[in-house]
Structure prediction request, 730 residues.
Amino acid sequence: MTHGRAPGAPGAHDAARRALRGLVMAATVRIHRPDAGYALDEPGTFLGSGYFVAPSWVLTCAHVACGGEGGEVVVVYEPAPGRGMSAVSGHVAAALPEGAGSLPGNWPAPDLALVRLSEPVDHECVYLSERPAAYFGEGKVLYAGWTVVDGRLSMLDGTLTVQGTLGGWTTDVQMRLGDNDLPDGVSGGPVIDPERGEVIGVLKSRSQHARGGTSTGLEQLRTLPVPSGELKSEADDLYQAVVHAHDRYHRDRQRHPDARRHTWADVQSQLGARPGQTLSPDERVQLLGRLADLPPPSSTSSLLDLLDSLPDFEAPAPLPAPRGWRDGLGALYEYARDDGALYLVLDYAVHAMTADRPFRAPSTPAAEEALWAGVRQAAQRLGPGRRTALVERRKARMEARGPVPVVGVRRTGASAGDPGRAATGQSSVLLEIVRRGWEPDRCDWSVFVVRSDGEAKRLKEVQRVPLADLAAHLSAPLKEAFRQCDTPDRPAVLQVATEHSLLALDVDDWRLGPEEERLGTQRPVVLRCSDRDQLTANGEYAEYGEHGEADGTGGRRASGGGGEQQAAASEGDDRLDIDEERRARWRWLHAHPATAAVLDCDDGLRKPVPPVEELRGLSHGTVPVLCRFDGHGREADTEALARLVRGGFGVALWRRRHVLPEAVCGEFHRGTLDQIAGPTGAHRLPEAVRDLRFRLRSGRPETFWAHGIALLYDDPHQPLPGAGDLLEAP
Prediction:
């Protein structure tokens, strides 16, 4: 198993092997029965091992995962070295073969299960080989898992010798492993090729009559059921959802490395591994990540046709047949020859970016362009004839491909109504929170019922309440307001009006009772800025004006003199101008397609939100998105929101990063683009965000990117009480 490995210094190679071991152990987990509770080190609930293969997904053996009750298990893992063990509940999303229901320890091949976590957590993931395990000949593999030693749960790892296969060249191939004892508990753990630094299988069982056991190759995951009917999103196909999430994870980790941790591509480079004869580990990670941004192949048949159409590829496809883009790429590695290897890989990428689509998400065009940019860059290593051939191939295939309709994010939330329907003709609930300037940890609050004609009735008002106790104080009045506004098919919107410094308040996470669901999953919860007028009148936009200069006090000094009267007039003109701009943006967003624009993050690196004058130059169809926002402890983040308000934006989206500080940005950028872009306008966003929160609480991993999401939805045609335009009943 040394094919593709470049020689290196022995000391460096040993260090790389140690780093590989650390990565494997960081991603290897214990599977417990759901009654484990807080007794994380109790061997009595221990079922076996597993490992993280993608964010919020664990791969293990079916006989391990199905040892729980009703498909429920507890996954015990270590978020980072030295941080201690943590636990999260999980559910068996799929087990192979389907319907086996065999006794634990005697599950038929391939004996695989995917466990879906119930909530997002920070963890490491292994790197999965895209080549079938049957490519491997004799040699040694590494393994890891958990077992009980002297009455205590302990991590175990070691080496095993590959002694052949079981099942022949069929879909039931298993590797025979020997020369080491495999104790109880390690089933479900990873099997690793130490030369390439990638996981190739799952430990299935130990031998009954000799040392060692068997391993199931990762390619058996391709036998997961293919969904019937038309794909609406990546999440509709479990196999594609998991492998795409895996490839995007490693691409994003490589783009945004942690100085304290090696990445898998780093270790593979140190080992001297090269996929096939052309790509470096980093190039492979980047290419697979770009392919994973595309919709999956329309079918296995279409992917096989694509491979057959490559002029330089004549080998039979491996079994089980390739199903995703990464599988097709893996099939090329063994058959690429000399300098034709790179051209074959790039030709495959061009075919993938121009293939027929089962659906086309709003992010698909950008993904196709990003893949083409990567192909063009890599093609600089080819001669001019082959570079020209790739350009012509792409052009011809794009012309031959028919138009594919854009499919929005699939919504399967709790609302009985249409998620895209505007919340018009219905009363809403308004919660106004005012921080007391001399007591910043306390606030005053009021609850209003706002009728569809704009009339507001105050239900209750309370002063000097600790911010930390708001949910408890508001339980009764909010429940009463909801009773007055909800209709049988649609819960009323909750508008939360606060000053900009409190927009990080997580009202959507509140529970109004111990058995109540969170507000953000019950109903749309949107934010409004109550100090918009003050920000606009005294805001930093004066610093960036085209016709004046800042006077150091927040006002605008007119060019050419004229005194305080002229400055005041200029300030008033700007105020009217930005108010009209705000209304114009709102009207446009609710009549035309919207587009997300991430303003504070560039490829995972924090950057400042542009100045107000630059923000005002963005198109009216733009919905600003803040990826790096953390309202707790960073004054710059609060100021970023203030700039959006001053820029005239009534609709914006962000996430409270303190909820999951280690999360990478790629999935959030991609998710917001797909969620916001669409043909129906911004009026659907409150219900769409509510639906995201509902699916997030239901444990749907494809929505975990939305953890901590918040929506500013501040209608300029519906002034807040006290603004002079909204009538208030006595």
Remarks:
- The chain has 18 helices and 26 strands.
- The mean pLDDT is 82.
